[in-house]
Design goal:
single chain; 102 residues; alpha+beta; five-stranded mixed beta sheet; 3 helices; disordered N terminus
């Protein structure tokens, strides 16, 4: 009974926090990487999304965390449009995270 209660709580928590955050982080001097977080909460396959990002923006893209994809280059605005149009995620769920400091 305890396990089902915990899993129910996790499911509710994911429904509340269902959003995709797209931001950029400085890599070296004037170089930036674009970070995409939260795709897993929308039931997306991280590896397939990473491959699609790399092909779309002609750059390196990799899954760097449990729910994070790093794309080389500052492509935040284009990335937000791509996520809405190609991946079919609702526009209200995609948020511009601005400059993300790690």
């Amino acid at each position: 009974a305890v396990v089902s209660t915990q899993s129910t709580g996790i499911t509710k928590k994911q429904e509340v926090n269902r959003q995709v955050v797209v931001g950029r982080s400085m890599r070296a001097r004037k170089k930036y990487v674009t970070l995409v977080r939260g795709l897993k909460t929308c039931d997306m396959n991280m590896k397939k999304c990473s491959k699609a990002f790399g092909q779309k923006f002609a750059c390196g893209s990799s899954v760097t965390g449990d729910d994070e994809i790093t794309v080389q280059g500052d492509v935040v605005d284009d990335m937000m449009d791509f996520i809405v149009e190609e991946l079919g995620i609702d526009d209200d769920l995609v948020v511009d995270g601005g400059d993300i400091k790690d």
